[in-house]
UniProtKB/TrEMBL annotation:
<dbReference type="InterPro" id="IPR016040">
    <property type="entry name" value="NAD(P)-bd_dom"/>
</dbReference>
<protein>
    <submittedName>
        <fullName>Hydroxylase</fullName>
    </submittedName>
</protein>
<dbReference type="InterPro" id="IPR036291">
    <property type="entry name" value="NAD(P)-bd_dom_sf"/>
</dbReference>
<dbReference type="InterPro" id="IPR051604">
    <property type="entry name" value="Ergot_Alk_Oxidoreductase"/>
</dbReference>
<feature type="domain" description="NAD(P)-binding">
    <location>
        <begin position="7"/>
        <end position="102"/>
    </location>
</feature>
<dbReference type="Pfam" id="PF13460">
    <property type="entry name" value="NAD_binding_10"/>
</dbReference>
Length: 272
């Protein structure tokens, strides 16, 4: 049973690769740049691009499980070729698929719903890893600036990966949509305090006004659509964002990892 992981060098994909390898499951990591892929010993690396389905046939040879992402290219735009990707997977003999979905469904989910593959959808409120966006200001100023200080049940990327692995190697997950959260709902201010404790430095939290947020995003070169999306999330996040669910523990058999654990794991990235 060989499993192909797309997005294999990304935040979640690399965790899926590592967890599969640790189980002794044959795993193939798909990347556009194999020379730069850092994977565990024994993991096969395949060159391919989801935006160019013709490159995927060799990577799918002998594959029975597939982890899909729903975006591709340098701009990480939503994939528009989901039907072709799903047809290639079915033709190759893939039986199980996990797909990590964003806020909006894409052609990938649409094609999976219309097809016959056993697939499991993973949805997340917010990655704990989004805190890496704070790293530069923490190192430089000891401060985190955020628009909106609402609680969120952020989830550890290792937990997302663990649920994906379960869906790929175990029976009973096909047809499920799993909303994944961490074990607690924390405001950004609370997460900043936990991060400060992990790095041994008192950090300052500053809540931005909408005008300040817009100005900072424009200065960073963020396009208007993403700025508007960020404003909506900061002002009125979806109610589900703060609801803690037991999905990770139900699927994996262990409690979800806390943000304090994430902060301790990644403390070096926030130190000078």
């Amino acid at each position: 049973m060989t499993i192909l992981v797309t997005g294999a060098t990304g935040t979640v994909g690399r965790r899926i690769v590592a967890q599969l390898a640790a189980r002794g499951t044959p795993v193939r990591a798909l990347t556009r740049n194999p020379a730069k892929a850092a994977v565990p010993d024994g993991v096969e690396v395949a060159c391919g691009d989801l935006t160019e389905p013709g490159t995927l046939a060799p990577a799918l040879e002998g594959v029975t499980g597939l982890h899909l992402i729903t975006f591709g290219g340098d701009d990480q735009a939503p994939l528009e070729n989901g039907q072709e990707l799903v047809e290639l997977a079915a033709k190759a003999g893939v039986r199980r698929v996990s797909v990590l979905s964003g806020w909006d469904e894409t052609s990938v989910e649409e094609a999976l719903r219309a097809g016959d593959l056993g697939w499991t959808q993973l949805r997340c409120v917010e990655f704990m890893a989004n805190a890496f966006d704070w790293a530069e200001s923490v190192r430089r100023e000891g401060v985190v600036r955020v628009f909106g200080n609402h609680p969120g049940a952020v989830v550890h990327e290792a937990d997302i990966a663990a649920v994906a692995v379960a869906a790929l190697v175990e029976d009973g997950h096909a047809g499920e949509t799993y909303l994944l959260t961490g074990p607690e709902a924390l405001t950004p201010e609370q997460r900043v305090r936990l991060l400060g404790a992990a790095i041994g430095r008192e950090l300052r939290f500053e809540e931005l006004s909408e005008e300040e947020y817009r100005a900072s995003m424009r200065a960073a070169g963020v396009d208007d659509d993403l700025i508007e999306f960020g404003v909506r999330l900061g002002a009125e996040p979806p109610q589900a964002a703060s609801v803690v669910l037991p999905t990770v523990e139900r699927v994996t058999g262990r409690p979800g990892l806390t943000f304090a654990a994430w902060a301790a794991e990644h403390a070096a990235a926030f130190r000078n």
